[in-house]
Design brief:
Elements lengths: L10 E2 L2 E2 H26 L5 H23 L5 H29 L8 H35 L8
Antiparallel strand pairs: 1-2
Helix pairs in contact: 1-2, 2-4, 3-4
Protein backbone atom coordinates (compact mmCIF):
# COMPACT_ATOMS: atom_id res chain seq x y z
CA UNK A 1 0.00 0.00 0.00
CA UNK A 2 1.45 3.33 -1.04
CA UNK A 3 1.62 6.19 1.44
CA UNK A 4 -0.11 9.43 0.46
CA UNK A 5 2.22 11.85 -1.28
CA UNK A 6 0.89 14.90 0.53
CA UNK A 7 -1.81 16.01 2.93
CA UNK A 8 -4.24 16.55 0.03
CA UNK A 9 -4.20 12.81 -0.72
CA UNK A 10 -5.47 11.78 2.73
CA UNK A 11 -9.21 11.08 2.59
CA UNK A 12 -12.02 10.47 5.04
CA UNK A 13 -14.37 8.23 3.15
CA UNK A 14 -14.02 9.18 -0.49
CA UNK A 15 -13.56 12.89 0.18
CA UNK A 16 -10.07 14.35 0.77
CA UNK A 17 -9.52 15.64 4.28
CA UNK A 18 -8.57 19.08 2.95
CA UNK A 19 -12.25 19.50 2.03
CA UNK A 20 -13.17 19.24 5.70
CA UNK A 21 -10.47 21.76 6.62
CA UNK A 22 -11.87 24.15 4.00
CA UNK A 23 -15.36 23.57 5.40
CA UNK A 24 -14.07 24.57 8.84
CA UNK A 25 -12.74 27.78 7.30
CA UNK A 26 -16.16 28.30 5.75
CA UNK A 27 -17.71 27.82 9.20
CA UNK A 28 -15.63 30.65 10.60
CA UNK A 29 -16.31 32.87 7.56
CA UNK A 30 -20.02 32.10 7.78
CA UNK A 31 -20.09 32.97 11.47
CA UNK A 32 -18.35 36.28 10.80
CA UNK A 33 -20.65 37.06 7.86
CA UNK A 34 -23.70 36.16 9.93
CA UNK A 35 -22.59 38.29 12.87
CA UNK A 36 -21.96 41.20 10.49
CA UNK A 37 -25.40 40.85 8.92
CA UNK A 38 -26.90 40.46 12.34
CA UNK A 39 -25.26 43.52 13.86
CA UNK A 40 -25.09 46.01 11.01
CA UNK A 41 -27.99 45.11 8.76
CA UNK A 42 -30.62 43.87 11.19
CA UNK A 43 -29.38 45.67 14.29
CA UNK A 44 -30.21 42.78 16.59
CA UNK A 45 -28.48 39.66 17.84
CA UNK A 46 -29.99 36.28 17.03
CA UNK A 47 -28.22 32.94 16.91
CA UNK A 48 -29.78 31.50 13.78
CA UNK A 49 -28.36 34.04 11.27
CA UNK A 50 -24.66 33.20 11.86
CA UNK A 51 -25.57 29.50 12.02
CA UNK A 52 -27.46 29.66 8.70
CA UNK A 53 -24.61 31.55 7.01
CA UNK A 54 -22.16 28.96 8.33
CA UNK A 55 -24.13 25.98 7.07
CA UNK A 56 -24.65 27.59 3.65
CA UNK A 57 -20.95 28.38 3.21
CA UNK A 58 -19.91 24.94 4.49
CA UNK A 59 -22.15 23.31 1.90
CA UNK A 60 -20.94 25.53 -0.94
CA UNK A 61 -17.25 25.02 -0.12
CA UNK A 62 -17.67 21.31 0.58
CA UNK A 63 -19.50 20.60 -2.68
CA UNK A 64 -17.28 22.78 -4.86
CA UNK A 65 -13.91 21.74 -3.44
CA UNK A 66 -14.99 18.11 -3.04
CA UNK A 67 -16.06 18.00 -6.68
CA UNK A 68 -12.87 19.73 -7.81
CA UNK A 69 -10.74 17.23 -5.86
CA UNK A 70 -12.76 14.25 -7.13
CA UNK A 71 -12.66 15.50 -10.73
CA UNK A 72 -16.44 15.07 -10.97
CA UNK A 73 -19.57 16.13 -9.14
CA UNK A 74 -19.99 14.51 -5.76
CA UNK A 75 -22.71 11.89 -5.53
CA UNK A 76 -25.58 12.26 -3.08
CA UNK A 77 -24.00 9.54 -0.92
CA UNK A 78 -20.68 11.40 -0.84
CA UNK A 79 -22.50 14.62 0.07
CA UNK A 80 -24.28 12.81 2.91
CA UNK A 81 -21.09 11.25 4.25
CA UNK A 82 -19.25 14.57 4.01
CA UNK A 83 -21.99 16.40 5.86
CA UNK A 84 -22.30 13.71 8.53
CA UNK A 85 -18.53 13.35 9.06
CA UNK A 86 -18.18 17.13 9.26
CA UNK A 87 -20.92 17.36 11.90
CA UNK A 88 -19.33 14.56 13.92
CA UNK A 89 -15.99 16.38 13.79
CA UNK A 90 -17.61 19.67 14.72
CA UNK A 91 -19.36 18.00 17.66
CA UNK A 92 -16.11 16.38 18.78
CA UNK A 93 -14.54 19.83 18.97
CA UNK A 94 -17.51 21.89 20.18
CA UNK A 95 -19.22 19.71 22.78
CA UNK A 96 -16.20 19.35 25.11
CA UNK A 97 -15.72 23.13 24.95
CA UNK A 98 -19.40 23.66 25.69
CA UNK A 99 -19.13 21.32 28.69
CA UNK A 100 -15.99 23.00 29.94
CA UNK A 101 -17.59 26.45 29.80
CA UNK A 102 -20.68 25.09 31.52
CA UNK A 103 -18.66 23.57 34.32
CA UNK A 104 -16.70 26.78 34.77
CA UNK A 105 -19.96 28.57 35.62
CA UNK A 106 -20.75 26.35 38.58
CA UNK A 107 -21.19 28.41 41.70
CA UNK A 108 -19.34 27.02 44.67
CA UNK A 109 -18.44 23.86 42.76
CA UNK A 110 -21.87 22.26 43.20
CA UNK A 111 -24.38 21.27 40.57
CA UNK A 112 -28.00 21.90 41.51
CA UNK A 113 -30.87 19.91 40.04
CA UNK A 114 -32.02 23.02 38.17
CA UNK A 115 -28.55 23.59 36.67
CA UNK A 116 -28.35 19.93 35.62
CA UNK A 117 -31.76 20.17 33.93
CA UNK A 118 -30.74 23.38 32.17
CA UNK A 119 -27.52 21.73 30.97
CA UNK A 120 -29.37 18.67 29.69
CA UNK A 121 -31.94 20.83 27.92
CA UNK A 122 -29.33 22.98 26.24
CA UNK A 123 -27.32 19.89 25.25
CA UNK A 124 -30.45 18.47 23.62
CA UNK A 125 -31.01 21.73 21.78
CA UNK A 126 -27.39 21.81 20.57
CA UNK A 127 -27.53 18.20 19.36
CA UNK A 128 -30.87 18.86 17.65
CA UNK A 129 -29.46 21.92 15.91
CA UNK A 130 -26.43 19.91 14.82
CA UNK A 131 -28.70 17.22 13.37
CA UNK A 132 -30.76 19.81 11.49
CA UNK A 133 -27.58 21.47 10.21
CA UNK A 134 -26.33 18.08 8.96
CA UNK A 135 -29.47 17.51 6.88
CA UNK A 136 -29.61 21.10 5.58
CA UNK A 137 -25.90 21.04 4.67
CA UNK A 138 -26.43 17.72 2.87
CA UNK A 139 -29.35 19.08 0.86
CA UNK A 140 -27.45 22.21 -0.12
CA UNK A 141 -24.37 20.17 -1.07
CA UNK A 142 -26.47 17.97 -3.35
CA UNK A 143 -28.00 21.05 -4.99
CA UNK A 144 -24.60 22.68 -5.53
CA UNK A 145 -22.97 19.47 -6.76
CA UNK A 146 -25.75 18.88 -9.30
CA UNK A 147 -25.38 22.40 -10.67
CA UNK A 148 -21.66 22.09 -11.28
CA UNK A 149 -20.78 21.72 -14.95
CA UNK A 150 -19.34 18.33 -15.88
CA UNK A 151 -15.57 18.21 -16.30
CA UNK A 152 -14.42 17.97 -19.87
CA UNK A 153 -11.77 15.39 -20.55
CA UNK A 154 -8.79 16.25 -22.70
CA UNK A 155 -8.71 14.38 -26.01
Amino acid sequence: MDAPTDFGDVALGSVPIVVYAAMLGATVAGQLLGMTLDAFVLGRHVLWIPAACSVALEALVGARLGSARAGRSLTAAECWRSSAYYSIGLAAISLPLWGWFGLSRLQGGSLSARAALDAATSLGAVLGALLVATFVRYGLMVLVARRLPPKETAS
